[in-house]
Amino acid sequence: MSAIRLLVLGAVRQHGRAHGYQVRNDLEYWGAHEWSNAKPGSIYHALKQMAKQGVLLAHEVAPSTAGGPPRTEYEITERGTDEYLTLLRESLTAYDQRPDILSAALGFMVDLPREEVVALLKERVRRIEEWRGSVTDYYTPEGGPGQLGHIGEIMNYWVFSADTGAEWTRSLIARVEGGAYTFAGEGEPFVGVLAEGQENPYATEERSPEEHG
Predict the structure, then answer these.
(1) 179 secondary structure, DSSP code
(2) The model's pTM
(3) What digits encode the pLDDT tens for the residues 45-89?
(4) Beta strands in 104-211, from DSSP E residues, in sequence order
(5) Buried b vs exposed e over 81-112: b needs ≥16 C-beta within 10 Å?
(6) What CA–CA distance (Å, rounded) separates 147 from 53?
(7) Suppose 76 and one of 17, 80, 152, 158 were both cysteines; which one would form an S-S bond, judging by CB atoms 3.0 to 4.6 Å apart?
């Protein structure tokens, strides 16, 4: 799975209809260009590809007053919404995803009902513990990595990562069960995107070819 796909679908869905620069601006506001592959070129490429695949609908709007080319705005389709929600659920559940994919899912978890998010996160913990059990069948953390020579550091790292991942997930479950945040069906969620024309303090200077001219 690619984090950019989940990020772009979720960002477009948040707006209802958005052009490429809005999507880029939102993701840079989240710092996604630092912890994922959501760079300007990747964002515009993903938008165009997903429009070809039918998960986004592309609308050409009037050219700018400065005489630039027509701007394309994107809207998520029913098929795109189904894929987005599937990716979101998978990303919250899978223990072996890259950190950027989990980070993307956390940014959109409030698009799901609270009870479902709790269930998905509990499943994540269960899978982490199951995986840890399979590793410790032949590697005993208490014996230290030296028991397997320096190669033991590999197992040591993954067991430590599993333990800290499970601990963090349990703490998130507790916060969600305790009433933190506004989830689907509970009212107006926290707005984590910039308003039109609002300055982005985290914007990068890099420009994509689609933004020139």
Answers:
(1) T
(2) 0.83
(3) 999 999 999 999 999 876 655 556 678 999 999 999 999 999 999
(4) 147-150
(5) eebbbebbbebbbbbebbebbbbbbebbbbbb
(6) 51
(7) 80
